[in-house]
């Protein structure tokens, strides 16, 4: 894939239940994975719900990691702008025919613009692992990925370096023009 290529990002929940999806543009690749971007105004939807993104965002899709990390540009159009980085713990993303898919495993690591880092949706993961009968290997994958990602986000290292997110956000408009 090359900068400017269009990719559909499709996220499901366990058992193939639909979740969020939207169109993106390849911004580029580096040692952390493929960076996909979407400008403000991008329609993000799932069955029964949709919204228009008020800020641009870029996501890094790692080649073999069980997460997708999304950096958000500052939202200059609204009051509140609490999230800089949102990391979904997922199955390992799969690529085919201009579409990247992954299963959202509920757990998230979030870094606010204040620098505060927290784990979100542990209660949802605990409920869903029983309700939807997540296999033991999926539970192990999710918890191990959460542990690694949480440490790296807190340290601001690797794919979770805030400077890296800003760099890829700055490249989004050029890639979208290709």
What does this structure look like?
InterPro entries: DUF402 (IPR007295), FomD-like_sf (IPR035930). This is DUF402 domain-containing protein. The model has no long low-confidence stretch (mean pLDDT 93). This protein has a 7-stranded mixed beta barrel. The chain has a two-stranded antiparallel sheet with strand order 4-5. A hairpin with a 3-residue loop joins strand 1 (6-13) and strand 2 (17-30). It has 3 helices and 11 strands, in the order E-E-E-E-E-E-E-E-E-E-E-H-H-H. With 178 residues, the protein is an alpha+beta fold. The longest helix has 20 residues, at 136-155.
Provide a quick synopsis of the model.
This protein is α+β, with helices and mostly antiparallel strands and 178 residues long. The protein has three helices and eleven strands, in the order E-E-E-E-E-E-E-E-E-E-E-H-H-H.
Key traits:
FomD-like_sf, DUF402 domain-containing protein, alpha+beta, 178 residues, single chain, two-stranded antiparallel ribbon, FomD barrel-like fold, 3 helices, globular, DUF402, 7-stranded mixed barrel
């Amino acid at each position: 894939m090359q900068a400017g290529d269009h990719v559909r990002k499709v996220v499901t929940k366990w058992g193939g239940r639909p979740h969020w999806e939207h169109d993106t543009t390849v911004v580029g690749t580096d040692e952390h994975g493929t960076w996909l971007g979407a400008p403000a105004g991008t329609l993000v939807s799932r069955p029964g719900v949709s919204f228009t993104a008020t800020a641009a965002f870029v996501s890094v899709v790692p080649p073999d990691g069980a997460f997708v990390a999304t950096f958000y540009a500052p939202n200059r159009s609204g009051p509140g702008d609490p999230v800089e980085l949102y990391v979904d713990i997922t199955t390992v993303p799969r690529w085919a025919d201009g579409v990247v898919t992954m299963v959202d495993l509920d757990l998230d690591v979030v870094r606010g613009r204040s620098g505060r880092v927290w784990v979100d949706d542990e209660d949802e993961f605990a409920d869903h692992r029983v309700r939807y009968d997540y296999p033991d290997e999926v539970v192990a994958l999710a918890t191990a990925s959460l542990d690694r990602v949480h440490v790296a986000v807190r340290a601001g290292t690797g794919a979770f370096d805030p400077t890296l997110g800003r760099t890829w956000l700055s490249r989004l408009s050029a890639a979208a023009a290709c």
